[in-house]
Amino acid sequence: MKSLQRFAWLCIAILFFAACHSGKSSSKQAISSASVSLNPKNFIDTLGGKVTGLYSLKNRQGMQVYITNYGARLVSIVVPDKNNVPTDVIVGFQNVKEYINSPDRFYGATIGRVANRIAKGKFTLNGKTYHLAINNAPNSLHGGEPGYQDVVWDANQLNDSTLQLSYLSKDGEAGYPGNLMIHVTYALGANDALKISYEAKTDKPTVVNLTNHSYFNLNGEGSGTVYNQLLQLNADKITPVDSTLIPTGKLVSVEGTPFDFRQMTAIGKRIQEKNDQLINCKGYDMNYVLNNSKPDSMFHAATAIGDKSGIVVDVYTTEPGIQFYSGNFMAGNNILKDSIKDDYRTAFTLETQHFPDAPNQKNFPSIILNPGKTFSSTTIYQFSVKK
């Protein structure tokens, strides 16, 4: 079985990262001439004795990706639209100070130690109860305080298309047990595929659930709401939540509900329906149970399409779930890279993950990591164009 898994991974690696020389020259020229209004000097700062910076990745097709080690976050992804116009499909800011000072701290960031919510900010592991910061009352959200979006990671640019970011999350940080050594690697391959690989080891039993919190607008940052952008999720069930957005523990079919995205559907088509879950979440903010029959294997989780741009993103992951969030709490509090505000529902997220509140839910896949074991997870965002 392990040999078959290794063979499958080898096939995926070949598909996504083999050199490709057959791309159209017009597309390559369009992307290589893209003007991204990011000044690397604006990302240099010193926090906690560590220096922040801006790093760029590029592939042979000319796709561009920009990352800062503050929060190990994606700042910009530039790909061609159906007319070969370079388009930035990630919502973000022009400098590191705006990320630091923003009331919305998760844009593009690596999230942990545990992504999503933990009920009442506490969990029990091996008979001991741990208490976390209540930063999304009455719960702890995205690792509590501080989360990984708030720290400076060590950066190692391995080559033009690969960046590794590392962070030692110390025992007791944000209330979690164990010294956790984390590596996040961004690798930009052929066919415009951005691969995010996570790896972590601990010296004490702990809990780990890492994800990336990029906000997508496939028509381009600042192009308006995402209501008419199309989405398909390969999931038959969701984990419904209570009024505090904590899962009830049940797995419920999407059949006959506004959460059914098994066929390509406009994001805004059913978002205003009178549904208890939509009311609780103020729109879409739901974990989907992916139809992956082989745990930890790569699975095609989602496809989204910009209705105006024709830009397509396919999401592949080894995770069992994906959080679809429709930008319900975006409130125009921030000025984006293109000097337009981040208004209500002008971006969405597709966060690959284990299920929310997993430490307190016995029926959910475990996120416990023990010494001697390695946490590993991979997500691929592959971009293309629908003419």
Count of alpha and pi helical runs: 4
Strand order of the largest sheet: 12-13-14-15-28-24-23-18-21
* Beta-strand residue fraction: 25-35%
In CATH, the architecture is Distorted Sandwich
- Helix coverage percent: under 10%
Number of strands: 28
**Rg from C-alpha positions?**
20 Å
Mean pLDDT over the full residue set: 92
Low-confidence stretches: 1-35
CATH class: Mainly Beta
Compute the separation of the termini in Å: 40 Å
Overall structural domain count? 1
Shape: globular
CATH topology: Beta-galactosidase, Chain A, domain 5
Biggest sheet statistics:
9 strands, antiparallel
Structural class estimated from helices and strands = mainly beta
What does this structure look like?
The protein has 387 residues and is mostly beta strands. The protein is 9% helix and 35% strand. It has one domain: Beta-galactosidase, Chain A, domain 5, CATH 2.70.98. The protein is built from four helices and 28 strands. It is globular. Mean pLDDT is 92; it is low at 1-35.
